[in-house]
Amino acid sequence: MTIQDRRALVTGGAQGIGRAIALRLARDGASIVIWDIDEDALEAVKSDVEGEGRACHVARVDITDSAAVETNVKEVLDRLGPIDILVNNAGIVRDSLMVRMKDADWDAVLAVNLKGAFLCSRAVARSMMKRRSGVILNIASVVGVIGNAGQVNYAASKAGLIGLTKSIARELASRGVRVNAIAPGFIDTAMTSGLTKEVRENLLRGIPLGRLGMAEDVANVAAFLVSDDASYVTGQVFHVDGGMVM
Ligand code: NAI
């Protein structure tokens, strides 16, 4: 993969899918910047990425905080240099049926999963446009495509993220910036560790490949999409879901 010596910023990269993407991009030759709100996990992932022989800069950044996002992008650009790749991965769930859903649960999920991706994309895109080069990758979800009972906030945020992906792809294509999304199915991370055995078994029945995905399954596709091997690909949503949605 052709990302040698590029710099990738991964949000929510302290654990799970974001961590796997950071490690994979480091292995492919990129230097890494990780933003997260979990400071202990940030220190651990920093040493893991450095173990791959690449530089890793970590910062506690809440991506819902517009001023913090702007300040930290500026700091990276001034101190480290250009950001070639942005992976909008940070995401949360606050599940409940719609009739019981609290306003705060709606607002929190939309703030992180959708507004956070918008704030980071806007902050990074200016410098990418000037350099006429860059890649943005958004981690959406299959539930943003097919919906899910009990996740109206999450599904709406991920459907919104897909709309954001396609719109930014159209705005930035002429400036040499590509924008794509991955829609993972059910991936074995902290986010899905709370599922009961019964729910897991039900889910597995709907997955033709017969297993939950691993964070590395998503990272493998991410590595392709941010590389020059995908240089003619923009505005697309790639399902990494074991065939769950087809
Ligand atoms: P995770 O819960 O293991 O990791 C999410 C990370 O985001 C955590 O390190 C967390 O501290 C960070 N984060 C949360 N709020 C933040 C904020 N305001 N600012 C900065 N960082 C913040 O989740 P996982 O499973 O690794 O998911 C990563 C992405 O993949 C999310 O966008 C999720 O919606 C998406 N996804 C996950 C699936 C799964 O089955 N695990 C399926 C489909 C999509």
Automatic annotation (TrEMBL):
Question: Which reaction is this enzyme known to catalyze?
Answer: a (3R)-hydroxyacyl-[ACP] + NADP(+) = a 3-oxoacyl-[ACP] + NADPH + H(+)
- Give any Pfam family that matches: adh_short_C2
Which is an annotated GO molecular function term of this record? NAD binding
The active site lies at 154 (proton acceptor)
Q: What is its EC number?
A: 1.1.1.100
Question: Which GO biological process categories is it annotated with?
Answer: fatty acid biosynthetic process
Quick one: which residues bind NADP(+)? 89, 154-158, 187
In which domain of life is the source organism classified? Bacteria
The chain positions of domain Ketoreductase read 6-185
Q: Which UniProt keywords apply?
A: Fatty acid biosynthesis, Fatty acid metabolism, Lipid biosynthesis, Lipid metabolism, NADP, Oxidoreductase
Per its UniProt record, what SUPFAM superfamilies does this chain match? NAD(P)-binding Rossmann-fold domains (SSF51735)
Q: In which pathway does it act?
A: Lipid metabolism; fatty acid biosynthesis
Q: How does it assemble?
A: Homotetramer.
What role is this protein assigned? Catalyzes the NADPH-dependent reduction of beta-ketoacyl-ACP substrates to beta-hydroxyacyl-ACP products, the first reductive step in the elongation cycle of fatty acid biosynthesis.
Q: Which family does it belong to?
A: Belongs to the short-chain dehydrogenases/reductases (SDR) family.
Give the protein's recorded name.
3-oxoacyl-[acyl-carrier-protein] reductase
